[in-house]
Amino acid sequence: MASITVGNVEIIPVLDMVPPPRPPTAMFPDTSDADWAGHADALDNGQLQLYYGCWVVRSEGATILVDTGMGPGPHPDRGNVEGELFERLRDVLIPADRRNNTNVGPSDEVNIVVHTHLHGDHVGWNLRYSGGMPAPYFRRARYLVPRADWDHFTDPENLANAPHVERQVMPLRRLRKMDLVEGEHNITDEVKTLPTPGHTPGHQAILVTSQGEKAMIVGDVLHNKAQVAEADWCAGVDIDKDASRRSRNTLLDMAEQESYVVAAGHFTPGDHIGRVVRLEGRRYWQAIEI
Ligand SMILES: [Zn+2]
Questions:
Q1: Which domains does the chain have, with CATH numbers?
Q2: Ligand 1 centroid to 122 CA: how many Å?
C-alpha cells in the first residue's frame, strides 16, 4: 500500500474519481492562456485535469478519513463518471486475508470522517439511501463538519444551490453522527484542523505533527500545482477570493519555511504529495514519490 509516514502517523491517498478535464481558464476565470504558458507541466495536454482524492490518516490507533469524494454516482454533471472511494477503501483498510469476507468492509474501519469543506466533491460518500432512508457509510464514525460551512450552506438561500448538503450532510445531525468543529480542533494529539477560509467560509486544512515531522492536507486551498508559484490565482468557485489568497499564502509560507509534507487531493496521483521549495525567488512544487 502506497503511503507516507510522518513521525508515527501514516497518510494514505485514496482516489474517488476522475472528472472530465476542463480548459484551465474555465477553472481559473481570472487567468489567460498566456498566464498558463509557463505552467505546461501543471496541465494535461493543455487541459486542467482535476482528481477527486481523499486521504486516510492513521494516528494513535484512530483511522481518520479526510473528505469523502463525489460519491457513487454516476454523476451526470461529471460525464456520468462513477466514484470508487468505498471499494478502494476496502483495499486500504482491510488486511488481504480478510478482504474476501463479505461481512468485513470499510464501513466499520473508520473512526472519524473530517471534512475540509462542504462542496459536493468532498461529502459524496457520507450517506447511503435505502427506501429513502439515509444511513452513514461509515457507521462507527463521528463526522466532523466545519461550523462556518454548516452555517453557510444550510442557510436557505445557499441550500437551494447545494442539494448535496441536504442529502449528504444535514441528515448526519438527525442521525446524531455529526460534530461541528471550529478553530484549531484536535482530532488526536498529532492531528488537528486549521481554519483556512476563502474557498468556503469554513474551509479547514488538516495538520499533522509527530516526532518533529509535519504534514498538511490542504483541501481546496490548492486545486492545481501552478498555484504554488501563482499563489494569487483563485478558482472561480472560491467564494471569498481575497480570503482564499490569504489562506493560500499562509499555508505556502508555512510549508516552505517549516518543511511540511503537503498532500493535495485535487492534484494528479503520483504528484499529489510534495514539498514547497524556493528556487531563484520563486516557489515550486517538488513531488515526493511514495
Ligand atoms: Zn474540491
A1: 4-287 (3.60.15.10)
A2: 6
